[in-house]
Structures are given as structure tokens and as C-alpha cells.
Design brief:
Chain lengths: 344, 799
């Protein structure tokens, strides 16, 4: 049997749509998103068909499967993308320090050795805390290279006065936060006040200074995927470095249909402006298998460049434990238990 | 060996193979050799042919070529099983169908793996789509068996059904054929395609283990010769075929005049229409599902992208980017999008058509990666700069190859979409519900998917318009294909009645007689043809003499010929557009008015009936008036349905007119028989070219004055009088006539069915006499079903 059909001329590489994608900046040297003037025409032309997006989401996990060594490699990558998070009313300095210790050593050293990863400095992507604990986390992570992310701007509802929200950002940055996860005013989206949303995110971005801004859209509180897409676009136009799904406090958190919608908004923004914006699904991602589905989605919708920590993060607290169990299973062939891995 | 570290660094895809151990164990349990499954037993393997895995080229098994004797035995087994199967009743059969559905579910992975091995489709598809739909089909039809008596009263099963299915969805097509046949109370002889017989054989194993009564389902294997023997077998009552249009045409030809009920599910070149307000990213995934599903080997594949010019470039760029991320490879790999092409000959055909596309000047684009060199693989391919007249825009490629053209307006999109001989399916993408629902009914296709594609479900009928075949599979509409109306025994129409018996001799000797009536010298009348709302002289310039029942000359009618038929069809088409879009309320009013005007001339028509037919004229005219009322009543009541497909979706089953219907009216009850066929056709929005009874055409030529008075728009009913032997061939053979109904002799029916092959027009032939005066036989939904075809429009929704 023969196939003589694979030599057809291919012109795909010359396509303008590829130029920007073909030479991505190396990891760690990504230029920030400077934003663009608010383009309401673009915002208005956004269309998202929910049923179609849901069908796509339903087959992300069934069209792709990673097994064995690939699965272990992917799960290790997922760890590097994790914003290890504690955002509870009962957080204490001790709790935050424990989390930071886990962030430095997310996987048991014997497992890393067995996986052939002993010489890889494997850490999570960031530690994410309330403003109050930024100083504690910065201290605990000193020398690790792990950034501290703070949820600011009246998290999670974001309805405190603008003045205090801006001050909160400034204080978090002053305390050493390198990443600020802001929440948008959902009302601006629900009322279609795109100018207000743009102004708000732009003001937050200015307050961030050198710190990177992740715009939490709280997609569980936006009614439609079209609004998710439009809000993503406006946040990017206003200069967000990341768009993020959820605070983790809404009734519905990160779902794949929402993720696909936001990833496509990022792609559209990149294709049209050349700027790079990251994506952070947060809330409800607890299983190792789910992290693989999200990675597959990013790889397929946005490409490999978007599977590194400067363009993709998971906001998660329980996910790491499940990944550790799966990694141990890969090493031993036996299913693992949570208590075999050090808790955060 | 890739290490964890490498996978961590590259995030590459790795192999994710599905185990074939159970499938191979099943093959080995059969010694890798199969006979036929007939009468509940496996015959000894004989005259073997090889079955290959297209992904590797390796031999999987040997199956046996069924010869004429084997086909005989299978049909005999099915015939023998028929009484017992029917005696089980609806509930008894429902239990069996339910058991089959559950049996499929219990062995779902075995079936899925065998299917992917044999056909080359990705395991994701066989596992997540084909096999679940198979189980769903049997479960759904268990329900139809259970409800049969209540939902299909006055209907009987057809009898022994011969079914021939293709290789692209081997077990799913098996289910689509077998489930409704069994539910309705038929027994089955089915032949899977010679490339892909294994899941059908595995299904036979399942039936055997379940203990289905012997002979109810018989599975025979072989190539086209076996299929031809089955289709041509005298003791087969119905033939159901899915496959190529050419073979479908051959089957129509071979079964012409046999009286076998026939459904054909044939090819397609389905349009995929993208408006400028569509969600283009979702459109891209839609294209993936449309043409890169099952390697594009899908009869309803969306193989012609028609995109609004303003978003064409954006769509092309996005499609190319998406094609880069598709994965072609081993069908048993769980992370593969596109598997293997089924057979070398198919791969050669795809390759040749792509080369032709390039040589005809279209721009070919394929992704940068290469497909595996071992096995039968072809990369996803997109053609742009394609002219509608290009070979690749017209021919069904049946591979992962899609062509893209642009349009300017919705009207042009519809025009381009319908610019094909086929009419299986269409897909419409727009976020504007007004636009989508305006376009969907205008598309000549049995299924229209709005913002989705390649959706299937047992509750929704599937089947074609035009040369994509006829009949529906699935849903209520599909059940009728395996049932026949319970009718009183009817008398055969005498052969040879088409000869101009009463007008023997040189017609010119008798021409020149005006229409006479008894008593005095009346004013001379010259009945003409009625075409496009005008009374026209026959092209031939000849007339035919008409005689009374007692043998008196009654007058002359025009002797129509092929040119009159041509003109009448053109007039019918011109009228059909407006009439099919007229409201049902308007059509109802017109038909009531026809009855009203006929009643005004009741005495005259009664006398005429007595004169030409020698029967009780008053009774026939009164029945005709009632019939006008019947179809006026039905005009706005023959509703469609909303099918319960298991998605967040409405599936609208809309009965649509066929277009132009040619009618050869019966000789008996010359007025009532004529109206009993014409009225349901026009009530449903068709235009008609009708040839009235040869022996009593004057009743009908009198009628056109009543039609004119009743506001039936010109061209909706066209009447051509003359000899059937001259008029039937051009009418039945006309490639722009959508259906032909022949109520005449068996020889004439056979001729019409043979001639229908050109454009595969729907045929409805009867050579038994109906009692037209009897409302149970002479009117009703049976007629309306013949006058319509069901279009299923899928509309998923979600804010």
C-alpha cells in the first residue's frame, strides 16, 4: 500500500496569520501587552455560538489522550503552570508559609528522581494570596524565583470604592507582589458599558506599574459566552497581561466552554495586534485529568507557546495533590493516596 | 523511547493506543474465517475473500462470497421466519429490539474496535459516535414496535426486506436498516459492504447469543454480485440501499416494475453555508466535523463551503491554522482525528480528483506535516479559488477534501447551494435566526443543520432530495418505509389498455369532430391542452376521437406529444415557486372554491360521467366535490413535527412539496381518479403535469374551466391529453420533474420506473385498481406522504 499524496505544495507558512505565531519570544522574555485604544466596532462584531462551543468542549477530552511517559511529562508541566492559591477567611501567616514551602517543592524528591526530573528546578508558577499576606509570602519565597500574586481591588466582588481598590493594588505592589489579580465590575459587562470597563482596567493597569495584571472576569456571573468574549477583549484592549475566568467564589467557576471562548478572544487579539496575553482558568479544577484537558485545549486553540507559565496558569488549590498521586502511580504502577504526599 | 523529561519539555502528543486484544480474540474464535449467517446458523466458509485493515494493509479475516444459491437460502430463511416474527406482535418485537440495544451496549467496545480495525475510522468516532448511535437506534425502534398498532393503524409490514449497506458507517448503517425493518414486523436479509463485513458478522454473533428467532435477520457477505442477486430476488418485497448514486440508479432500473418498495440513500455534495454574522471560530470546528469526520467518507459531508465574501479570507486563514493541528494516524490511537481511507481504490480516487482540481486551476492547501507512509492515509485538504463548474465542486470526492467558494447575498448562497444534482444535507451558519430560518427551507436537502453539522439521531428522519435518493431512515417518517397500507385486495389493471383501443385506426379519419352532445346541433367545442393557465392547441396539430361508453363519438381531444410535455413542465416550474410558498390558508381556500364551482356544474359533470364512463355520474361528481373539501381541509393541517433528539436542540420535521409532479391518471373513475391524485399534490404545494385517462379525457378538459374559475394559478395544474404511450416516456424521463405517479398498467409502471433513473425522481406506481369512491382507499395521509418529502432542520440553541 502506498501514499503518494503527501508531497503537495504547501503555502501555509507564508500566510500573514502565521508570521506573528512563528517566531514567539522565548519564555520569560515576553513583552507586556501595551493595550490598544478601545475599539467598539470590534467589540460589537463578536459572535459566540454556545452550542457549537460546547460541542467543541465536549470533544477536547475525547479527541486527545496522553498516556504513560507523556502523561507524566504533561502533569509535571501543569505543576509549573499552577498559581498555588489560598484565599480563605481563615488564612494565617502560618498557613501561607506552608503553602510557600509546598510551592518550592511541589513533588516528593524521590518521585522526581524516579521520573528523571531530579535536575529540573520544578516549582509552581506563583503563589496567590490576599493582600494581607503578600509580605509573608514574599519573605517565604525569597530566592526561589517564584512570584507572589495578590488578589486586589476588593476581591471577590470588586465593589469597593475605586480609590481603595487602586490603593490596594499599590499597597500589594509595594509589599512585593509581582502579579495582581484584579476583579472587574461585572455591572459594566451586564449593562454593556464597555467604556467604563476599559477605563477601569486601564486604571488598574496603571496602578500595577511593573506588576503584571490578571483581569478576573468572574465568568460565572456573566450571562453569555458572547459577553465573556467581549469582556475578555475589552480587558485586553485596556492592557491586561492575563485574562482569568473566576475568583473561585462564583457558583460556576472555570468551565471548558468559557475557557475556549477566552482562548479564542486571546487568539483574535494576538492575530490582530500582535500582542501576547495569557490565560488563567481558576476555580473548580481539581483533577489531574482536567489539567490535561485544559492543556490540550490551549495547545489546540492557541498553540504550544501558550502552554508555558508566562502565558498560561491554573488557579488551583487542590489540583496539586491529585497530580502528585498520578505521578506516583506512574512511578510505582500502584494507585496512590493523598496522605503519601506532603500537604501545603 | 520518549522520556518524561522530553514530554515535559515539548508537551508533545504521544501514542495512546486502544487494545485490539478482544477484537482479535473474537476473530480467532471464528478461525478468522466466516461463512454466512442464515436461518440462525453459520454456513461453512466458502469462496473466501480477504478483509483488510486499511491502516496497516494486514489481513484481518476471510469472509465468504454469497452466490445465488446462498442468497436464495437467505431469502427463504427470512420468508420462513416471517409468520412467527409477525405473530410476536409489537410488544413481542419491542422486547427483542430492546434486548439488541442492550446487547450492543454490553459489547460496545468490542464493536468499536472491530469497526476501527476494519474500516479505518478513528476509535474516538466508533466509540463515541457510531456504536452509541447503533444502540440508540435499536432502543428508539423498540419504541416504534411497542406503539406500532396505535401509531400505524391500517398498516402491515412489507414482508421480506433485502438490504445492501456501505462501508463508511458499517454497523450504524446496519442498524439504520435493520431496526425499523424489524420493528415494523419484517424479516431481513442484509449484505454489508465487502470491505467492511466484520461488525455485521459480530452483530450476527450477538443475535445468535441473544437467541433471536432463526431467519429473522440473515447476514450474507459478498461484493456487488451478491448485492445484485439480493436486490433482484423475486421473493424480496422491499429493497433498501445506501451507497453510491450510480449503484442506486442501477437498482432502480433493476427493480422497475417489480412492485418492490424501494428506498435509496445515495451520494451528496452538501453545501456548508457561512454567513458573515457567524461565529467563525465555531464554523472552523464545524468544518472539522463536516469534512474531516470519518476521513470525509460521509455521504452528507459538508464538502462545499460557501462563505460570504466579506469573511472568506478570515475563514480560510483560520481553517488553515486549524488544519495544522489535526492529527492523522492509526485509527486505534485515541488521540487521532483522521484515520485511514477504507481501500486503495478509494485513495486512488481521492488522489486523482485532487490532482484534477489542481490542474483545473484551484488552489490546493494541505498542512505542513506528512501523513504516515504505511497504510492508506490522506491529509486534510482545502481547495480555494474554486469555480462552481470545477470537477471538484461538482463530483462527490468522498475523502477529506473540501472546496471553498464565496457568495455575495443570501439569494446567491441558496442558488449556489442548490446548484447540484444532489440534495442530501446542508449546513447553515449564522447567529441571525431570521436569516437561518429563511434559508433552511430554500435548500434542496433532506437535512439542514443550523450552526452544526453531521448530527444524527434515531428520532430524526435522514434521507435525500433529488439524486441523493428517496425515503427516510429514522423517526416516524422512516417507519413508513417498512410498512404498507392495509388495503382490500385490488383488481389488476389489464395489460395493454394503453393501446388506443377505442380509437383504433387512422386518427385523422376521425378528427374534425367537435364535442357533441345528444340532442340538437350544439355549438362546436374544441378541448385543448391546458398549459400554464392557458388553453393551447397540441404541438402535433392532431386530435384524438373520444367515444362514449356506448360507442358513440363524443368529440376530439388534442393529441399531446413530447413538446407539449416539455412546455407543461416548464409552466409547472414557473408556477411551482409561488404556489409552494403560498400560505396553506390560501391553498385551502382555492381548493374549497374548486369544490364550490364543481358543485355549481354538478349536473353537467354528472351527465358527462354517465356519457363517457357509463357509471353513476352524480355519485362520482359528489365524491369529487367531497374530495376537494378533503384536501382543502388537509392543506393547512398536514403538519410537521418537532422530533425529540437527545440534544439541546429543536429538530423540525417539515413536510415540503416535491416540486413538479407528473401524474398518469387512472382510467377508472376518470374524474374522481384524476382529482384524487391531483388534489393532494397541489394541496401540499406541488405543481402538476397530469395526463388524464386516455379513455375519458373530456371530463378533465371540461374541468380546466372550473379550475380557472377557482383561482388555481396558471401552471399549477397542467393537462396534456393524448396517448399514454407517447406522453409517459417524456414525462417519466424528464430530468426536471421531481416525481412521477403512474396509476396504469404494470408495463407502464415499469417503464416509468426505468425512465425515472435519469434524475432518480420519486416514483409512485400502482397497477391495481383502487376504489376511488371509498374514502379509506381514495384519499388520506397516504396520498399526502407521497406528495411531500420530509426535511429535518436541526436548530441547537443556547444563550
Amino acid at each position: 500500500m502506498t501514499t503518494s499524496t503527501t508531497t503537495t505544495s504547501r503555502t501555509g507558512r507564508g500566510d500573514p496569520a502565521y508570521v506573528a505565531r512563528d517566531v514567539p519570544p522565548p519564555v520569560g522574555r515576553l513583552p507586556r501587552n501595551p493595550g490598544i485604544p478601545l475599539d467598539l466596532g470590534w467589540v460589537r462584531e463578536v459572535r459566540v455560538n454556545r452550542s457549537a462551543v460546547e460541542r467543541r468542549a465536549a470533544t477536547i477530552g475525547t479527541r486527545r489522550s496522553v498516556k504513560q511517559a507523556w502523561q507524566a511529562g504533561w502533569l509535571l508541566r501543569a505543576i509549573t503552570l499552577m498559581d498555588l492559591t489560598t484565599l480563605s477567611g481563615d488564612d494565617t501567616a502560618g498557613r501561607v508559609r506552608r503553602l510557600c514551602a509546598k510551592a518550592r517543592h511541589p513533588v516528593r524528591p524521590d518521585l522526581l528522581r524516579a521520573l528523571g526530573m531530579a535536575d529540573v528546578p520544578l516549582t509552581v508558577g506563583a503563589v496567590c494570596v490576599y493582600h494581607t499576606f503578600v509580605g509573608t509570602a514574599v519573605e517565604a519565597l525569597a530566592g526561589s524565583g517564584i512570584p507572589v500574586a495578590a488578589v486586589s481591588t476588593g476581591f471577590p466582588a470588586g465593589l469597593s470604592p475605586m480609590r481603595t481598590r487602586l490603593m490596594e493594588i499599590e499597597d500589594s505592589v509595594a509589599d512585593g507582589a509581582e502579579e495582581i489579580d484584579i476583579v472587574i465590575t461585572r455591572a459594566h459587562v451586564l449593562t454593556g458599558n464597555w467604556q467604563a470597563l476599559y477605563d477601569e482596567v486601564q486604571a488598574f493597569r496603571a496602578a500595577c506599574g511593573q506588576a503584571h495584571l490578571k483581569a478576573i472576569l468572574a465568568t460565572g456571573e456573566l450571562a453569555t459566552l458572547r459577553d465573556v468574549s467581549r469582556a475578555s477583549l475589552v480587558a485586553m484592549m485596556a492592557g491586561a497581561d492575563f485574562v482569568k475566568t473566576s475568583t473561585g467564589k462564583e457558583p460556576v467557576n472555570a468551565t471548558l466552554p468559557v475557557g475556549i471562548t477566552m482562548a479564542r478572544a486571546i487568539r483574535a487579539y494576538h492575530e490582530r495586534t500582535g500582542h501576547w496575553v495569557g490565560f488563567k482558568p481558576a476555580g473548580g479544577i481539581r483533577k489531574a485529568k482536567e489539567s490535561l484537558d485544559w492543556l490540550a485545549m490551549m495547545k489546540e486553540e492557541l498553540g504550544d507557546r501558550w502552554t508555558h507559565p508566562d502565558l498560561f496558569r491554573f488557579g488551583a488549590s487542590g489540583l496539586l495533590t491529585d497530580i502528585e498521586r498520578q505521578l506516583e502511580h506512574h512511578v510505582t504502577g500502584r494507585y496512590s493516596a493523598a496522605h503519601r504526599h506532603g500537604m501545603a | 523511547m520518549t522520556t518524561v523529561r522530553e514530554a515535559f519539555d515539548t508537551l508533545a502528543w504521544g501514542p495512546a493506543p486502544e487494545s485490539t486484544a478482544e477484537a482479535r480474540a473474537w476473530l480467532e474464535a471464528h478461525g478468522n474465517r466466516f461463512g454466512q449467517y442464515v436461518g440462525g446458523v453459520w454456513t461453512a466458509p466458502a469462496d473466501p475473500f480477504e478483509v483488510h485493515d486499511p491502516a496497516t494493509g494486514k489481513l484481518l479475516a476471510h469472509a465468504s462470497q454469497a452466490d445465488a444459491a446462498a442468497v436464495d437460502a437467505a431469502v427463504a430463511a427470512a420468508r420462513a421466519a416471517l409468520p412467527g416474527w409477525q405473530a410476536l406482535g409489537g410488544h413481542g418485537r419491542a422486547r427483542w429490539l430492546y434486548a439488541i440495544a442492550r446487547g450492543i451496549q454490553r459489547r460496545s467496545r468490542l464493536f468499536a474496535v472491530i469497526e476501527s480495525l476494519d474500516n479505518g475510522k478513528p476509535i474516538r468516532e466508533s466509540r463515541d459516535i457510531d456504536i452509541p448511535l447503533v444502540a440508540r437506534h435499536f432502543l428508539h425502534h423498540a419504541g416504534w414496535a411497542q406503539l406500532l398498532d396505535r401509531e400505524f393503524p391500517e398498516h402491515d409490514p412489507v414482508g421480506v426486506v433485502g438490504q445492501v449497506i456501505p462501508w463508511n458507517f458499517p454497523l450504524l448503517m446496519f442498524a439504520w436498516k435493520v431496526a425499523p425493518a424489524l420493528a415494523a414486523g419484517n424479516t431481513v436479509v442484509i449484505k454489508p459492504a465487502e470491505y467492511t463485513p466484520l461488525t455485521a458478522l459480530c452483530f450476527a454473533d450477538l443475535l445468535h447469543d441473544l437467541g433471536l428467532p432463526p431467519g429473522v435477520v440473515n447476514v450474507i457477505t459478498g461484493d456487488g454480485r451478491t448485492g445484485a442477486a439480493l436486490v433482484g430476488h423475486d421473493d424480496v418485497d422491499k429493497v433498501a440501499f445506501t451507497g453510491s448514486t450510480d449503484v442506486g440508479r442501477a437498482i432502480r432500473h433493476a427493480t422497475a416494475g417489480s412492485g418492490k418498495k424501494l428506498t435509496l440513500e445515495l451520494g451528496g455534495k452538501s453545501p456548508f453555508i457561512v454567513f458573515d454574522d457567524a461565529d467563525i471560530d465555531s464554523v472552523v470546528e464545524g468544518v472539522v466535523d463536516a469534512i474531516w469526520f470519518n476521513q470525509g467518507q460521509v455521504c452528507c459531508a459538508g464538502s462545499r463551503i460557501l462563505v460570504a465574501e466579506s469573511v472568506g479570507d478570515a475563514l480560510i486563514a483560520k481553517l488553515r491554522a486549524r488544519m495544522e493541528t489535526l492529527r492523522v494516524g492509526s485509527p486505534l490511537d485515541k488521540a487521532v482525528d483522521i484515520g485511514a481511507i477504507v481501500a486503495p481504490v478509494q485513495l486512488e480516487r481521492i488522489t486523482a480528483l485532487v490532482e484534477q482540481g489542481k490542474s483545473e486551476g484551484a488552489t490546493c492547501w494541505q498542512p505542513s506535516w506528512a501523513v504516515p507512509t504505511e497504510g492508506l492515509f490522506y491529509p486534510p485538504t482545502l481547495f480555494t479559488e474554486v469555480a462552481p463548474a470545477a470537477t471538484i465542486a461538482q463530483e462527490e470526492i468522498f475523502g477529506p477534501v473540501v472546496v471553498l467558494m464565496t457568495f455575495r447575498t443570501p439569494e446567491e448562497a441558496v442558488e449556489l447551494a442548490n446548484n447540484t444534482r444532489y440534495g442530501l444535507a446542508a449546513s447553515v451558519w449564522s447567529e441571525n435566526v431570521n436569516l437561518a430560518l429563511d434559508v433552511a427551507p430554500k435548500l434542496k436537502a433532506g437535512t439542514v443543520w443550523v450552526n452544526c453539522t453531521n448530527m444524527f439521531d434515531a428520532a430524526s428522519g435522514f434521507g435525500g432530495y433529488r439524486e441523493s435518493g428517496y425515503g427516510r431512515e429514522g423517526g416516524r417518517e422512516g417507519m413508513y418505509e417498512y410498512l404498507k397500507p392495509r388495503a382490500a385486495s385490488r383488481e389488476l389493471r389489464a395489460a395493454g389498455s394503453s393501446a388506443p383501443a377505442s380509437s383504433a385506426g387512422d386518427p385523422s379519419l376521425r378528427s374534425g369532430l367537435g364535442v357533441r352532445s345528444t340532442g340538437g346541433m350544439p355549438v362546436d367545442r374544441t378541448p385543448k391542452l391546458y398549459i400554464g393557465g392557458k388553453q393551447v392547441r397540441p404541438d402535433s396539430g392532431h386530435s384524438l376521437p373520444i367515444w362514449s361508453a356506448e360507442g358513440h363519438p363524443l368529440g376530439d381531444v388534442g393529441r399531446g406529444n413530447r413538446k407539449d410535455i416539455r412546455n407543461a413542465v416548464e409552466a409547472a416550474h414557473a408556477a411551482s415557486r409561488g404556489w409552494s410558498r403560498a400560505t396553506a390558508h390560501l391553498r385551502a381556500q382555492v381548493l374549497y372554491y374548486l369544490g364550490e364551482n364543481l358543485s355549481i356544474r354538478r349536473e353537467e359533470f354528472s351527465a358527462r360521467v354517465r356519457e363517457v364512463a357509463g357509471t353513476d355520474g352524480t355519485a362520482e361528481v359528489d365524491a369529487a366535490i367531497r374530495r376537494c373539501f378533503t384536501y382543502a381541509a388537509w392543506a393547512d393541517k398536514y403538519d410537521g413535527a418537532v422530533h425529540h433528539t437527545p440534544l439541546r436542540n429543536v429538530t423540525l420535521a417539515m413536510p415540503e412539496p416535491l416540486g413538479v409532479v407528473g401524474i398518469i391518471a387512472p382510467d377508472e373513475s376518470p374524474l374522481l381518479g384524476f382529482l384524487s391524485l391531483v388534489l393532494p399534490a397541489i394541496a401540499m404545494g406541488n405543481a402538476v403535469v397530469a395526463v388524464p385517462s386516455e379513455q375519458a379525457p373530456l371530463l378533465v378538459t371540461d374541468l380546466y374551466q372550473v379550475m380557472e374559475t377557482s383561482d388555481i394559478p396558471g401552471g399549477v395544474v397542467n393537462i396534456v391529453t393524448g396517448w399514454r404511450r407517447e406522453l409517459l416516456p417524456p414525462l417519466a424521463g424528464h430530468d426536471d420533474v421531481d416525481a412521477v405517479w403512474v396509476h396504469a398498467t404494470r408495463e407502464e409502471a415499469a417503464e416509468a420506473e426505468r425512465l425515472s433513473c435519469g434524475n432518480l425522481k420519486r416514483t409512485w406506481t400502482e397497477w391495481t385498481k383502487r376504489d376511488w369512491a371509498d374514502a379509506r382507499e381514495g384519499e388520506g395521509p397516504e396520498f399526502l406522504r407521497h406528495a411531500t418529502q420530509v426535511k429535518n432542520i436541526w436548530v441547537p440553541y443556547g444563550a
